[in-house]
Amino acid sequence: MRVLGMISGTSHDAIDTAVVALRVQDGVLEAEVCRTAAVGYEPGLRARLARALPPGRVGMAEVCRLDTEIGRAFADAAAEAVAAAGPVELVCSHGQTFYHWVEDGTVRGTLQLGQPAWIAERLGVPVVADLRARDIAAGGQGAPLVSYPDALLLAGLPGRPGALNLGGIANLTTGGRTPLAYDTGPANALLDAVTSAATGRPYDEDGRLAATGTVHQGLLADLLAEPYYRLPPPKSTGKELFHGGYPAPFLARWPGLATPDVLRTLVALTARTAADAVRRHGLDTLLVSGGGVRNPPLMAELARELPGVRVAPSDEVGLPADAKEAVAFAVLGWHTAHGLPSTLPSCTGASGPRVLGTVVPGAPGASLPPPLPQPPHGLRILR
Q1: pLDDT tens-digit series, residues 72-99
Q2: Domain region containing 105
Q3: Is there a contact between 359 and 368 (Cβ–Cβ < 8 Å)?
């Protein structure tokens, strides 16, 4: 079955797509990644989305417009993927997270924008969407949902492996009989916010500014005092906490810091909080994905923090680091299409495994495959 996975992450810079051919062989789900791409938002739409995200406030009229326009942007990206890689039988669209409602460590709700009907109308195939809500209704965090594909992949690797995704927010999945997964803290979200405010550029390309800076130990200590880091898993976070205005009160305590020093300190923050989690679980291999892989100072800092751990991009096992989440959502959509659960209660805290998402029908005759009796026990990326 050919599935198109789609997501725009916490950095809200582009729509990531992955066309993946999936089949079960001897109980293992084999995945051939046929094509990946990142389609940038139109600048005006991205600017409006940035203004609407926390701590911004907009009315319901703008929420409706954004839902429609993001949905159309996803439909355009889906059409581009199909034109380049050939037809698909299913789309799984995460959309764009707009708000993740957390109170006292409990997730109360979540909202993703990007009306999936636009994709179904454009391609004529079923679309799985709104994947987080069912896990939250079952008492889970609804995140990180990539933990299920991660766990399937890690099950086939030796030692004590883990998977770290460095998107806007960093999340870790551990392997083993009882996998754990949670958001460890910010990754690109704060780096991008500081870079944008200081330079007008959306991000620090290749970590060049950060590479010229020095860690400010006082600022780092202040940042590490954030209570979130001490919460036990399962836990999740987002721009509701680590938003563009988050660094301001910390920087006010240390006036006059140069932008490169601030960025270098934020790199150290991300590496330290992620490495603390890796050490806590005794991992010996760390497969890293997300935009942070392309930030040399961040990857170097991770390696320094974890001298006994082999740190490598997920490309090493055939999973494109830049499109890991899009591939993961293709896997989640495949499970939903076959009536299979794709959550792990040990990772999200839900009361049990759940079949995720809602299905928007495609054109007449575009049906889902028959249910499968049991889920695969592993994931192999074909190369």
Answers
A1: 999 999 999 999 999 999 999 999 999 9
A2: 2-139+323-382
A3: yes
Question: How far apart (Å, rounded) are the C-alpha atoms in residues 99 and 188?
Answer: 18
In a domain, 152, yes or no: no
Residue 279: CATH number of its domain: 3.30.420.40
Neighbours of 204 (CB within 10 A): 27
Specify whether 284 is located in the same domain as 173.
Answer: yes
Task: Report which of 20, 35, 102, 97 is spatially closest to residue 66, judged by C-alpha positions.
Answer: 97
DSSP per residue over 107-170, as a string? Answer: EEEEEEES-THHHHHHH-S-EEE--HHHHHHTTS----TTHHHHHHHHTTSSSSEEEEEESSEE
Tokens matching residue 133: 């809500």
pLDDT digits (tens, 9 = 90+) for 233-271: 999 999 899 999 999 999 999 999 999 999 999 999 999
Q: How far is it, in rounded angstroms, from Cα 22 to Cα 308?
A: 35
Q: How many CB atoms lie within 10 A of CB 287?
A: 26
* CA distance to 184, 201, 208, 276, 374, per residue, from 262 (Å): 20, 16, 13, 21, 50
Neighbours of 109 (CB within 10 A): 14
> Cα separation of 304 and 118, whole Å?
46
Same-domain pairing of 66 and 176: no
Identify whether the C-beta of residue 166 lies closer than 8 Å to the C-beta of residue 188. yes
- The answer, as to whether pTM is greater than 0.85, is yes
